[in-house]
Amino acid sequence: MSAADLPERTSVTTPTDAAGAAGADEPASRPQPPAPGPTGGSAMDWALLVCGSLLLLGVVVDVVEGEGLDWATLAWTLILLPEGVRRILAGRGQTRRADLMDPVAGLCTAAAVAICWAGLAYDWSRGNGTSWLVLIATVLLTVGGAAWLVRRLLERW
Questions:
Q1: How far is residue 45's CA from residue 49's CA, in Å, rounded to a whole number?
Q2: Residue 54 resides in a domain
Q3: Pseudo-torsion of CA 88, 91, 95, 98, nearest 10°?
Q4: Radius of gyration of the chain from its Cα atoms, rounded to whole angstroms
Q5: Which runs of consecutive H residues, i.e. helices, occur in 22-94?
Q6: Boundaries of domain holding 120
Q7: Is residue 2 in a domain?
Q8: Nearest CA among 141, 139, 84, 75 for reference residue 108
Q9: CA atoms within 13 Å, Cβ hemisphere of 87
Q10: Residues 99, 93: contact at Cβ < 8 Å?
Q11: Cβ distance 114 to 138 under 8 Å?
Q12: Is residue 18 part of a domain?
């Protein structure tokens, strides 16, 4: 295909376009539709918050009734609650507060990993069996946290 085969391009400029470019009263760009407002969080965000709250209630009830502390449930509570709060704040347009929740969520996740390891060590010291689901989750959280930490350190260098 040669240049002769291509259709000729012409500029379509109307007198109002030229006047608009020269500084007339017309706006320089088309009016844009308004940006969507804050939604308040998705159903998943609210599910994280509700599930975390129910788990926290379950931990409190178990301790009060004398059944003891369930380490894994407490750890899941520490992971779900701050993440749910952070996501709901972000969904409501409160980005500053959501940004403040990022370190809180990170610290709570680190505390959850420490609680899981402590719970596993406590059960092992008492001669109880290993909950494989808790062990696998704890190892994966530990490896994920270590990978996150290495990535953050490499970003700063």
A1: 7
A2: yes
A3: 20
A4: 28
A5: 43-64, 71-91
A6: 43-148
A7: no
A8: 75
A9: 16
A10: no
A11: no
A12: no
DSSP at 128: P
Residues 6+ apart with CB under 8 A from 97: 89
Question: Residue 149, by phi and psi: left (phi above 0), alpha (psi -120 to 50) or beta?
Answer: alpha
Rounded to 5°, the CA angle 121-122-126 comes to 115
Q: Total structural domains in the chain? A: 1
What is the distance between the alpha carbons of residues 142 and 7, in angstroms, rounded to a whole number? 62
Provide the residue-wise pLDDT of the chain in tens; the chain has 157 residues.
555 565 565 555 555 555 555 555 555 667 776 655 567 678 899 999 999 999 999 999 999 999 888 899 999 999 999 999 999 999 998 999 999 998 999 899 999 999 999 999 998 999 988 889 999 999 999 999 999 889 989 998 8
20 occurs within a structural domain:
no
Q: What predicted TM-score, i.e. pTM, was given to this entire model?
A: 0.68
